[in-house]
Amino acid sequence: MENSFKSHIKIYWSALMALIATVIIISFFLIKDFKNFSFEFYFLMMIPLWIGVLSANGYETLRIKQTVREYVTLHYPKKMLDFDEKPVDLLNSDTEDVLDLFQDQELILDPIILNLSKEARKITVFMYGVFFSMPILLITTVFFILKR
Questions:
Q1: Are the beta carbons of 72 and 101 closer than 8 angstroms?
Q2: Is the pLDDT of residue 33 over 70?
Q3: Helix, strand, coil percentages, rounded to 5, for the chain
């Protein structure tokens, strides 16, 4: 297996930036005034956005988990066997199934595991980016574009 795993994170960021640009352009050129701004429409727009973001997170996380499991099973069968035999700690919310192997000091030195770890981190950053950008977009739209 080569070091070629790439998530679709650039597509997700591009779609988010297009959505933000669309909201700003519509607010600036079509709505133009605060009294015509629809909070309901804004929040209705956020519902499909969040469903899409959560779906993308689930999809990408599943792809990364499958790739990690295949790679570790193929190249580090002892580590995978030890991991699979380890009892599951259901009360520990910090566990992420096979992604916990990113904490292994020997595995993280492997360039493919390191790449997969970075891709997983990018997905998490995207989730936080969407979470924080939506209130910022609302405040920017309402108080800086429409209140002028």
A1: yes
A2: no
A3: 80, 0, 20
